[in-house]
């Protein structure tokens, strides 16, 4: 039977991130010799080298890349155990982790969580902001309990419930662009430079589908990680942006920023909610799921 403790798990993950045994040891306040011995013992148990030693650090081997996915899951479970134990020790009814994209959090989820927290004050709620693809990966790996993601980007094999809907609007600098007629036609939009959220985002996926529908390829010259950065580039006239109107309002846009509706239904989006059992306390999880879905019906 394999013997592996939480310190060794943390060490292996730190080595993968740092690319160095010594830096990982320093991060975990371990002696380098002790860290090296822990790694060697684990590799001997696994019968595989996780890292190739090099003059200036280490490189993850091909078997190491595959095994690291399992080790990372163990690390997540250990962190989950510690946090849940702390919550239960404080007299809470467990902890529920919810993952969602920023657009869903800003428009709907923040308010829904506030209502849910008031209804169930003894359940600890935690939010992780990620794009729709990563939310599903976290759900699949049981890092989170509840995932909210854009429906068309769905790939995780779990039951889904309809959560909310939104749509995208065109955001632009009035000093650099003019859109006299609304809704803005798709071909007119595609002729503009576009600032988009990056890899894994539902907005990028929608733009790629829109370009393909016209036999075009989206270059994605301006890929950003957040709506605040998108607006910064839009203000300077580097391109136009796409975001839900509720998100735009949350930034209190100045008069120089204009927005316009879009033609067709390609920009309309549906969010779904999925959850996975086995980590959180079952009744607490079901109470939170029901409360979030009830929030949707109350709108």
UniProtKB/TrEMBL annotation:
<dbReference type="InterPro" id="IPR000847">
    <property type="entry name" value="LysR_HTH_N"/>
</dbReference>
<dbReference type="Pfam" id="PF03466">
    <property type="entry name" value="LysR_substrate"/>
</dbReference>
<dbReference type="Pfam" id="PF00126">
    <property type="entry name" value="HTH_1"/>
</dbReference>
<keyword id="KW-0804">Transcription</keyword>
<dbReference type="InterPro" id="IPR036390">
    <property type="entry name" value="WH_DNA-bd_sf"/>
</dbReference>
<dbReference type="InterPro" id="IPR005119">
    <property type="entry name" value="LysR_subst-bd"/>
</dbReference>
<keyword id="KW-0238">DNA-binding</keyword>
<dbReference type="GO" id="GO:0003677">
    <property type="term" value="F:DNA binding"/>
</dbReference>
<feature type="domain" description="HTH lysR-type">
    <location>
        <begin position="4"/>
        <end position="61"/>
    </location>
</feature>
<protein>
    <submittedName>
        <fullName>LysR family transcriptional regulator</fullName>
    </submittedName>
</protein>
<keyword id="KW-0805">Transcription regulation</keyword>
<dbReference type="GO" id="GO:0005829">
    <property type="term" value="C:cytosol"/>
</dbReference>
<dbReference type="InterPro" id="IPR050950">
    <property type="entry name" value="HTH-type_LysR_regulators"/>
</dbReference>
<comment type="similarity">
    <text>Belongs to the LysR transcriptional regulatory family.</text>
</comment>
<dbReference type="InterPro" id="IPR036388">
    <property type="entry name" value="WH-like_DNA-bd_sf"/>
</dbReference>
<dbReference type="GO" id="GO:0003700">
    <property type="term" value="F:DNA-binding transcription factor activity"/>
</dbReference>
């Amino acid at each position: 039977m394999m013997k592996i403790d939480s310190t060794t798990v943390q060490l292996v993950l730190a080595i993968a991130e740092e690319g160095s045994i010594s830096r990982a040891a320093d991060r975990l306040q371990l002696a380098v010799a002790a860290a090296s011995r822990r790694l060697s013992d684990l590799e001997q148990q696994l019968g595989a080298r996780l890292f190739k030693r090099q003059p200036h650090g280490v490189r993850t081997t091909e078997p190491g890349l595959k095994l690291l996915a399992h080790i990372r899951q163990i690390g997540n479970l250990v962190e989950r155990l510690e946090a849940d134990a702390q919550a239960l020790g404080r007299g809470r009814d467990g902890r529920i982790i919810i993952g969602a994209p920023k657009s869903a959090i800003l428009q709907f989820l923040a308010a829904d969580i506030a209502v849910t927290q008031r209804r169930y004050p003894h359940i600890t709620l935690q939010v992780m902001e990620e794009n729709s693809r990563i939310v599903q990966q976290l759900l699949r790996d049981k890092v989170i309990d509840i995932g909210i993601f854009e429906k068309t980007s769905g790939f995780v094999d779990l039951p889904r419930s309809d959560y909310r809907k939104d749509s995208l609007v065109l955001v632009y600098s009035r000093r650099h662009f003019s859109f006299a007629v609304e809704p803005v036609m798709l071909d007119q939009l595609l002729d503009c430079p576009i600032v988009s959220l990056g890899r894994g985002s539902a907005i990028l996926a929608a733009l790629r589908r829109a370009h393909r529908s016209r036999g075009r390829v989206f270059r994605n010259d301006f890929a950003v990680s957040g709506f605040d950065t998108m607006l910064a580039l839009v203000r300077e006239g580097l391109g136009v942006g796409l975001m839900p109107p509720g998100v735009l309002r949350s930034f209190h846009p100045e008069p120089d920023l204009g927005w316009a509706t879009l033609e067709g239904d390609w920009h309309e989006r549906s969010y779904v909610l999925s959850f996975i059992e086995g980590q959180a306390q079952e009744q607490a999880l079901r109470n939170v799921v029901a409360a979030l879905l009830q929030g949707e019906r109350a709108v």
